[in-house]
């Protein structure tokens, strides 16, 4: 069942920057793509995650045996 929102509910919602494009995004149940401004920005972000664009840096040496060698 769809929920209807009054204009006061939408007016009370806060605007946040879209994580993908930086534009204004309505953070409320009235925006099904929240915190993104649109379905397009939501899919762009999902694609970035799928392509491993969001990764933590690797602190391990490239060659595990390289740090054990002494001169």
TrEMBL record:
Organism listed in the record: Pulveribacter suum
Name of protein: DNA gyrase inhibitor YacG
Region (Disordered): 50-71
UniProt function note: Inhibits all the catalytic activities of DNA gyrase by preventing its interaction with DNA. Acts by binding directly to the C-terminal domain of GyrB, which probably disrupts DNA binding by the gyrase.
Names of the cofactor(s): Zn(2+)
GO MF terms held by the record: DNA topoisomerase type II (double strand cut, ATP-hydrolyzing) inhibitor activity; zinc ion binding
Superkingdom classification of source: Bacteria
Lineage, broadest ranks: Bacteria, Pseudomonadati, Pseudomonadota, Betaproteobacteria, Burkholderiales
The keyword Metal-binding belongs to this UniProt entry's keyword annotation: yes
């Amino acid at each position: 069942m769809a929920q209807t929102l009054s204009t006061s509910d939408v007016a009370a919602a806060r605007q946040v920057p879209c994580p993908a494009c930086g534009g204004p995004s309505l953070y409320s149940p009235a925006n099904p793509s929240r915190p993104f401004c649109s379905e397009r920005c939501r899919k762009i972000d999902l694609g970035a995650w799928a392509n491993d664009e969001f990764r933590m840096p690797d602190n391990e040496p490239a060659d595990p045996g390289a740090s054990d060698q002494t001169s």
